Amino acid sequence: MSLASRFAAAAAASFIFATVDPPAQAAPGPCHEAADFSILPSPFAPWKGAPLRVMIVTEKPLRGVISLVAPDGSVAAKSSDRHGNAPYSWFAEVAQPAAGMWHATLTLDHATAGCSTIKRDISVSARKPNPLPVPPNAFWKVRNNWNHATESLFSAWIEKLFDAPPDQDLSWKVWHEVLRDRSRNFLFNYLGRGEDNVRTGLRPDCADFVYFLRAYFAYKMGLPFGYSNCSRGTHGKPPKCFQWFDMEHPEVTRPPPPPEQEIASATTAANATPPGQTPPILQPFVPLQSAETPAAPLKARPKRPTTFNEYLRDVGDVVHTGAVRATANDENTDFYTVSLTQEALRPGTVYADPYGHVLMLVHRVPEMNGKPGVFLAVDAEPDGSITRKRFWRGNFLFVHDPALGSPGFKHFRPIVRDKGGSLRRLANADIIGNPQYADFSLDQSRMSAEDFYDHMDDVMSPEPLDPVKAMTDAIESLNEQVKTRVTSVENGRQYQEKHAGEVAMPNGSSIFGTTGAWEDYSTPARDFRLLIAIDVVRGFPDRVIRRAPHYAMPKDKSNADVESELQGVLASELASRKISYTRSDGSQWTLSLKEVIDRAPRFEMAYNPNDCVEVRWGASEGSEEASTCKRHASQAQREKMSSKYRIWFHERHWPTNT
Question: What Rg, from alpha-carbon coordinates, does the chain have?
Answer without folding.
Answer: 26
